[in-house]
Amino acid sequence: MKPFQTIFLRVSILLLALFLSACSTLNQFQTAPKELPLDIKKLDSWTVRGKVLIKTETENLSGYFYWQKQQDSVQFSLNTFIGTNILTLTTKNNLSTLEVDGKVYKDRSASRLIRRTTGIQLPLEKLELWIRGQLAGKEKSIIKNGNQIKQFDYTGTEQKWQVKYSKFQQQKIYTLPMLINLTTKGTKLKLSVSNWEFD
After folding, report:
1. Which of 14, 42, 55, 113 has a Cα at 20 to 30 A from 159?
2. Global confidence as pTM
3. What pLDDT score was predicted for residue 27?
């Protein structure tokens, strides 16, 4: 694999952090709106789309991300601006499948799959909360503006992450992050959310 492809692959898979169903009743003419839980931590079905910028010590890369959670299943994909798929990670029935560079990798643990594929340890379980502006419970140096989190630090087994929120927007009954910066040694990720959907 060429050096550029290797860097792009490794950094892109970092997003699976960024980054790693609903019931609706139909009547004769329309679908009844789903009642959303007041506590956003209980929200188990959602879709978020947006742009991502990845900066390393040697490369600047950008593209689109798509992240959908349907109760116990998750799909995350990363694409170039011209629509070429870079990678797709799906988790269903406790099995995670990563499709990248024409190859397929599987593991019972999404975190272990990423670690085994890239050598990087990511707080995947925390990211589902962070993308919604919520804390998992082990974050440090938390700064808030009212009820909204501005930034915090998180130290995993091998890496320390700093997460900063610079923009929130009302989406249905929730106030959700629209601009998030995640930083670890040698890598910066910027997620610019274009829209949220609730199934």
Report:
1. 42
2. 0.76
3. 36
Range of the domain at 138: 3-21+33-197
Asked if residue 27 is part of any domain, the answer here is: no
The number of distinct structural domains making up the chain is: 1
pLDDT for 185 equals 86
In a domain, 44, yes or no: yes
What is the reported pLDDT for 61?
76
Supply the CATH number for residue 115's domain.
2.50.20.10
DSSP letters of the chain? --HHHHHHHHHHHHTTS--------B-SS-BPPPPPPSSGGG--EEEEEEEEEEEESS-EEEEEEEEEEETTEEEEEEE-TTS-EEEEEEEETTEEEEEETTEEEEES-HHHHHHHHHS----HHHHHHHTTT---S--EEEEEETTEEEEEEEE-SS-EEEEEEEEEEEETTEEEEEEEEEEETTEEEEEEEEEEE--
Could you tell me if residue 141 is inside a domain? yes
Report yes or no on 50 lying in a domain. Answer: yes
From the number of C-beta atoms within 10 Å of its C-beta (0-12, 13-18, 19+), residue 40 rates as middle
What averages of pLDDT result for each successive group of 10 residues across the chain (199 residues)? 56 52 34 73 89 82 89 87 86 88 88 74 78 90 91 85 92 91 88 89
Per-residue pLDDT, 25 = 30
The token pair that represents 78 in the structure block: 């990363």
